[in-house]
Structures are given as C-alpha cells and as structure tokens.
Amino acid sequence: MANLVSKRMQIKKYHAIDLDIYEAGLELRNKILRIPLGKSLYDENLSIEKENDFYGLFLENVLSATLGIFEESPIIAHLTSFAVEEKVQQMGVGSALLNFVENDLVKMGFKEIEVSARQTALGFYQKMGFEVSDGPIWNEDLEIWDFLMFKKLKDI
C-alpha cells in the first residue's frame, strides 16, 4: 500500500500567506488535533504562526497530512501541529512527510528537531528515531500530557 501512496503523493512547503493551502491545513489540524479534545483551533491565537514553515502532503491533490516548523534556535527546529487524515494513517504518509521535512531542515542548516508529542504519538516518533528528553508535561492549553522529544538530524 505504501508504494501506491508514494506514486500519488506530492509534498509542498507553504506559509500562512498561502491562504488556500493554509486554510485546508487549519481544517485538517482542527479535525485531527482539536475536535477530539473538545476544542477548536480557531479559538487560538494563530498569528504566532505567520513566520512558520508548513509542509503539506497531498494525495491526488487533496491535503492529507500537514505539519509546521519554527526555529527554536539557529540549529534547532521545533515541529508542531502534525496532523494526518485518519483514513491514511498507518499507510506511511506521516513517515514520508517527516522524512521530507527532515531532509529540508538539514539543507537549511538545522542539526536537531524537537517536538512536544502527545502520548498517543510517542510510538510514531520513537519509530522515526526521536528520543524522549522530558515528560510527561501537562499541557495547560489542551489539557493533555505531552512529552518533549528530540532527534539529531543527519547530514544528507
């Protein structure tokens, strides 16, 4: 199945000013990351995202996965808001997107990537080579436990 997905897949880097893609990303993030918690992404201060880099994975021209990146320091990138459409989870879509992003971050000079991961995502990130550096940490905004994780990026 992963081979079929890769043939239909396109990954794009975008920003908040790319309104069509950004709004589709907001909808996906809200559906996957907020609604199950009884929250709405649209109640949050989204202006803090204006400088973020976003990446979207499209399957047959439909946004199926997205994540954001911001600079934590000149050598550390912070991954945030990673959402994959439920119907394509466990099909290699998230892994493909994260691999693409990691390669892009290396080209940009980053040496490490960090993420605040939900307990439900720990296994995915560990499979992708991330290690827990702290946690569990109570996330006041989302009212869930997070784990701070990191991964050293390898030169390509």
Characterise this structure.
With 156 residues, the chain is an alpha+beta fold. The protein has one domain (2-152): Gcn5-related N-acetyltransferase (GNAT) (Aminopeptidase), CATH 3.40.630. It contains four helices and seven strands; from the N terminus they run H-E-H-E-E-E-H-E-H-E-E. It has a seven-stranded mixed sheet, sandwiched between helices. A hairpin with a 4-residue loop joins strand 6 and strand 7 (144-152).
For this structure, what is the CATH class?
Alpha Beta
* Main sheet attributes: strand count, strand direction, barrel closure: 7 strands, mixed
Treating each run of at least 4 consecutive H or I residues as one helix, how many helices?
4
Determine the mean pLDDT. Answer: 93
What structural category characterises the helix and strand content?
alpha+beta
Count of distinct strands? 7
Which residues form runs of ≥5 with pLDDT under 50?
Answer: none
Could you say how many structural domains there are in total? 1
The global form is: globular
Radius of gyration computed on alpha carbons: 15 Å
User: What fold name goes in the CATH topology slot?
Assistant: Aminopeptidase
Strand content: 35-45%
The CATH homologous superfamily corresponds to: Gcn5-related N-acetyltransferase (GNAT)
What percentage of residues falls in helices of 4 or more residues? 25-40%
State the end-to-end CA separation.
Answer: 27 Å
Which H/E pattern describes the elements?
A: HEHEEEHEHEE
Specify the CATH architecture. Answer: 3-Layer(aba) Sandwich
Strand order of the largest sheet: 1-2-3-4-5-7-6
